[in-house]
Amino acid sequence: MNTIITAKDLTKKYGQFTAVDAISFDITEGECFGFLGPNGAGKTSTIKMIHCVSPVTSGTLIVNGTPAHIDNRAIKMMTGVIPQEITLDIDLTVYENLMVFANFFDIKRKEAKKRIADLLKFVELEQKRKTKINELSTGMKRRLLVARSLLNHPKLIVADEPTTGLDPQARHLIWQRLRQLKTQGVTLILTTQYMEEAQQLCDRIVVMNGGKILKEGVPAKLVADEIGKEVIEIRIPKEEDEKLVAELSSFSCGHERVGDTLYFYCRDRHDLMKKLVELNLDNYLNRPASLEDVFLKLTGRSLIE
Amino acid sequence: MNLSYRVYYVFFRNLISYKRFVVPTFLVSLIEPLFYLITFGIGMGAYMGYFGGKPYLYFLVPGVLVSSVMLSSTFECLYGTFVKMVHEKLYDSLIATPVSAEDAIAGDIAWASFRGLVSGTLMIIVAVFMGILPVSLISLLLLLLLMIFVGILFASLAMIVTSFAPSFDFFNYYTELIITPMLFFSGVFFPLDRFPAWMKTLSWFMPLTHAVKISRAVFSGTYDPELIFSFLIIFVLEAIAFFIGLKLMKRRLIK
User: Do residue A194 and residue A48 come from a single domain?
Assistant: First the structure.
């Protein structure tokens, strides 16, 4: 597999503020690569540099064999962008939005018409051709953004939190469409705060915080390595922690106290569960470890403003 | 500078969106000149007698013509561009395509100039109905070119203001302190001859003064070698404003 994107010591500064702090990563052609992180982690700044709308402060960033640069039209020509904000043209109808955009990519009118018809079908908006943007629901707007990003038959799709604010139906439809694109060989770059989204779509992820990459890997493996297989949440008063931790010290489980809950991260829960039943605790929950645990472990559980 | 033929695509986008606003903007473009021509031209003109052997309206029409171009193109690049940039985030999606920031801004300047041309043309039509005609067909064509030329100047100047405007309110400074005085001190409504010397000097620094001079000369077909000078002033200012406008707007759009 070929590498489509290589970043080395990639840095982005806005004045004195460092949004992306000397990160390095490679993205392989045809994979779905996810940037995870809380607000302000530097995800959006990173992908804006990749699709050439924000200049690189320092370091190197090679996309499809050429350095990413604000005036690199070749990269923009082969990239489809699904932005975080809904940047549809509200003065135009659904069809006009796509037609005007097709123009920007030098797509001839006849070809554009054909592509628009196909894409409206793909995102299930055929009935809304003549509708104005303000009359669409958020889900429809997001689907239209997906259609818009595909007009130029991109080799690379950059999706910045593509399902924010959507109901489960709309979210699943977008996921299906993105997976469908992946089977066609498109490289997909995704930023998200939804762990389920990352697990559904991504082959590899990086977890970012404060402009740095904290961890990189395959989602399932990251969960296994960082957390284990199981998580047990116990809601007991903080004063009882010490006693309980001592009682459970023979099991090889990591533990962590956050707010009103004591967490145990285990590879094998059976013995621990038995012990808990013996102790007759009633306020506990056992569940499989998830990417969300990795995320919270790496980025901290406190609120990020 | 990264300008390309894609300027046209941005112009085209504006043209498509314009379809929905054609009727209201035509009405505004028609009512405004009518208002000037009736109040100043007919009302005040009755007291003014003849200017250089012709009725006052012949003096007034070419002046109001370029000032309506100035107002239309200015407002388009102030409010129109600001809404597209800040409220609709249109530029954000534009610059993610092969259309560069410069293409997008130049496209908007071209569009604003076109809006000026439409206003000015409507104005000529009104004047024709009132019996006030440019001296020849060639002079009419030259007037159309002049309108495009003047439109680009004021669109570019407005673009500079928009590039650092924090909000709509900011535009009031520009329109009240620069544009409105220009309307009254550029010899649109009356000749500058009887102004005190300092006022004449002041008006010399106003680009509209030179545009009005050229417009009046073209309208009546009486050319003066001094006009070359006026033309050069507008041309140089326009070139500078265009490039500064593009640069500053790019700085605002790309971070």
Answer: yes
